[in-house]
Amino acid sequence: MASSTQDLNEIRIVMVGKTGVGKSEVGNSLLQYKAFVSAPFGISETTQCEFGTRMLADGHKLVVVDTPGLFDTRKSNQETETEIGHCISLTSPGPHVFFFVMVVGKFTNEESAVINNLKDIFGEQVMNFVIILFTHKDKLTHGNITLDQYFEICPKEVQSIIKECNGRWVAINNYADPVNLANDVEDLLHAVRETIKSNGGKHYTGAMYVAAEKAYKEHLQKIEEEKNQRERELDEKERQLDEERKEKTRKLEEETEKQRLKDEEDQRKNEEEKQKLLERRRELERESDIKSQEMEERRKQIEEEMASETEKNRIIIEMKAQNLKLEKEKQDKTMEQKVHEIEMERKRQNQLRIEQEKEAEQQKVEHERIIHEAEEKKRRIKDSRLKMERAAEEAEKKRLEAQARDMTLAKEKQKFEAEKRRREQELEEKRKQVERMARKMNQ
Q: CA–CA separation, 315 vs 337, rounded Å?
């Protein structure tokens, strides 16, 4: 009976909402004194349920309970929801109204989550006791917008929440001047009285909370079971992935080992081939050196033979010239001069071996000229001329033989140079092949 009397003389209000919407300031405005600690810039100071009271002019005792803000980063939502559930004990036998506090012009998915949390904690029937309360009413005043007009432009989610509350919603400017603040507080209390009246004076009961708490725990248990099931599925999937990863790793290691062995074998073969090529190159170089040495020796031998033969010819010609000179001592000085010129010409021929052919031709011309002059000047010395002609013919024969040897030597030299160039080309080609193979092995 005492509880019933208390219920008639008290108006019990519980304020809920996300962190930083101004619940504590609303409580202080309702109680007309600083019962709850509030902080600027949306920083929540309330970490557990607190309450304050004052006597109203009509004789009712006003009990206001401030709750921690949902989505407070300092506490988990589950801890906050449990703390909000304790408000029932502070409003025994139960609250008449829940103020769901929001900020004008500011609505996020968290506000919807707060309503859903209320339903989870207190059950669907809690909406019969909820009034939507907007703080920062001055934003509407500055925009010359009424509450009804704001309802038309606010998000559809907010309209849906207001409709769930049967259109119960009010606004307050906690920082208004005393007169306007008192008017806003009176509007809030009027909305509270109307809500109590529409509920037949009933308050939210502990039985409702127990039923809601049971349903909420079942819901949490179901969520936990689903979470455990997902964790088991994830563990199984992770185990399968781990096995697949291990199998793939094993296969990759096997393939890597096979490739490594193959690479080592290829590298060994390449090294052997490279070594063979190097040995072949050295062998070719040795052969080339031997061949070059042989060709050089052959060239020197041919030159020595040519020099020896030329020297012999020179000695023979000198001897014959000397004989002719002895025979022609009695001839005039002109004949002696011509003989001397012939001998000097032949000496130049021996000294200029590279120009032997040209000098031989010049010698022939000179000889013919001398013979012609000798025939013109020495008609009377026919026997001497005949001897000179025979000597000249023999000298010409020797010259021709020397010329033939020079041509043979030139051909031998050309053949040697051609063979040398061919060998050099072969060596260069081999060297390029070795370099290409070396580059391939390095790659």
A: 20
Fold classification of 2-204 is Rossmann fold (3.40.50)
Nearest to 170 by CA among 136, 124, 203: 136
| DSSP β-bridge partners for residue 98 | 14, 130
Q: pLDDT for 1-44, tens place per residue? A: 334 445 568 899 988 888 788 888 999 999 999 988 765 544 44
Instruction: Tell me how long the chain is.
Output: 443
Q: What is the mean pLDDT of residues 250-276?
A: 85
Q: Kindly list the distances between the CA atom of residue 405 and the CA atoms of 307, 365, 400, 410, 415, in Å, as whole numbers in the listed order.
A: 11, 21, 8, 8, 15
Ranges of beta strands (E only) in 5-129 are: 10-16, 50-55, 61-66, 97-103
**Nearest Cα to Cα of residue 106 among 17, 177, 191:** 17
Residue-range domain boundaries for the chain: 2-204, 266-442
C-alpha dihedral sign at 393, 395, 401, 403 = negative
Considering only residues 81 and 137, tell me which one the structure prediction assigns the higher pLDDT.
137
Asked whether the beta carbons of 51 and 64 are under 8 A apart, the reply is: yes
Q: What distance in Å separates the CA atoms of residue 382 and residue 390, rounded to the nearest whole number?
A: 12
Q: Which candidate, 26, 45, 15, 188, places its Cα nearest to that of 114? A: 15
pTM of the full structure: 0.47
Residue 401 has a CB neighbour count (10 Å cut-off) of 12
Provide φ and ψ at 106, rounded to 5°.
-140, 105
Tell me the C-alpha distance between 242 and 221, whole Å: 30
